[in-house]
2,3-bisphosphoglycerate-dependent phosphoglycerate mutase
Amino acid sequence: MDRHLVLARHGQSDWNRKNLFTGWRDPDLTELGVEEAQLAGRRLKALGVSFDVAFTSALSRAQRTCRLILEEIGQPGLDTIADEALNERDYGDLAGLNKDDARAKWGEEQVHLWRRSYDVAPPGGESLKDTVARVLPYYMRNIQPRVMRGERVLVAAHGNSLRALIMVLDGLNTQTIAGLELATGVPMVYRLNADTTVASKEILDR
């Protein structure tokens, strides 16, 4: 059995370009973001990767990335399941703010703590720990069983929701996962062993 799991962060969004905290807000992809998603699809197609099912978040930037990838590999009508459990981390009161403006308001150290600590949440928002607590149960119930049955699964989501999955798949601790950066539109191709551990991982970097 293949047991293939592909994780892809959405392409660049309009708020990524403007350096704004996004979270559960719903800006669309930029032209570059569209190109990144299409390139991700072409790279997967070049590897001969196809899918049995796709999962994405309730946010349009991830859903559009998912559609663009599937169009590029010739599977535009593939069964796709969207769920807010895979949404980006909720940045609460920071959402919509320019990151430099946030640093000016609360200080470099405090904003860094909100962004990069594992368990400190911004006002009204989620910590990475909170994000892990909603993403992992969804993965265990809905995604992992399908991978283990031999289905080839695409997950198009967000930097922090994917970091939650990578933390478990790659066996990272709370310090190393907090510092992990995921590029927009770059797929990560996992192949899992029969015991759910990782047999191989390939990053299809630009």
